[in-house]
Hints:
By secondary structure, the chain is of the alpha/beta class. It contains 11 helices and 19 strands. It has 2 domains: 10-209, Alanine racemase (TIM Barrel, Alpha-Beta Barrel); 222-343, Beta Barrel (Lyase, Ornithine Decarboxylase, Chain A, domain 1), CATH 2.40.37.10. 25% of the residues lie in helices and 24% in strands. Helix 1 packs across helix 3. The protein is elongated and about 75 Å long. Bound molecules: pyridoxal-5'-phosphate. Pyridoxal-5'-phosphate binds next to loops. One of its GO terms (molecular function) is alanine racemase activity. InterPro entries: Ala_racemase (IPR000821), Ala_racemase/Decarboxylase_C (IPR009006), Ala_racemase_C (IPR011079), Ala_racemase_N (IPR001608), Ala_racemase_pyridoxalP-BS (IPR020622), PLP-binding_barrel (IPR029066).
Amino acid sequence: MIAPHRLRLDTAALVANWRALAKLSGAAACGAAVKADGYGLGAIEVARRLADAGCRDVFVSSWAEADALAPLGLPVAVLHGVREEDVAAAKAGIGWPVLSTPAQVARWRAAGGGRCDVMIDTGMNRLGLSAEAVGEGVLDGLEIGTLMSHLACAEEDSPMNRRQRDAFASLAGRTGAARMSLANSAGIALGADYAFDLTRPGLALYGGVPCAALAGVIRPVVTPEAQILQRRVLRAGDTIGYNATYIADRDVEVAILNIGYADGYWRGFSGGKGAALHDGARLPVLGRVSMDLTAIAVDAAPELAEGDWVALDYALPKAAAASGMSQYELLTGLGARFARCWFD
Length: 344
Ligand SMILES: *Cc1c(COP(=O)(O)O)cnc(C)c1O
């Protein structure tokens, strides 16, 4: 079966982004967050390429995601920790849990312990043990590889960054952890104080640019491509698509693409906010993006015909601003109908 949509995925850009982030991490090791199926690109394909480049620290959310990476033979850290129903998977050697509650710590001890990581809450109030719990000895005797915390506002110039960093730094030497890790992609750009021993970029590996400091450093990795199902002419006064939100003010050449919000090409790209790119021409979306169909103006591309492929404009910072979605959502929403095509 020939897939009707393609994601063109640039291996060289992925690896270059990881190397750039590793360099910005200074003496700290640079890992990779490949949760949510490698932010939609395909976790095993991403992790294999980064492991070949030298990445040794991979983060997923669940044991199901860890299991999907087992063929790589590179144990992964599981950010959601260990539920009762995960204990068998967690003891099977495909990875270790990132423990974030006293109950998880107790469960891990009862299961015989072994290598684990630990998440500390330094103010995000999402996951993590408190510094007080550490002080009370909750972690005593555990075999902790990496002590972690997570920044709430790393892509902003917020006083919270420094507060979280200082709270985390105050735990140095208090847990027996071999390493400490705080920074996500944007956190890496906050500077050497935030790198500790290991950084954990996700978004920027995949071409996302969370903050100005990473613009010009990070290369795009992902280009969605769709196929033209029909080319037609709208006469002046004609409308197109649901709710007839676009009315042609002159004769307009139109191509109907086989992609829509069910593929993660969100409705926010409607009404010219999104576009296809062809030979340097911008071909704007006309009217509403539908579930499986999107109309684009093709006056500027007279040669495009039924069956031709076009690339969508998916420069992440701009596409996020235009569509009202985050760069994270633009990546993780990319649907199952895409063939994920890696090139070198
Ligand atoms: C997702 C995640 C990351 C990566 O964050 P980005 O903003 O995508 O770089 C790092 N650490 C933890 C704990 C995460 O959940």
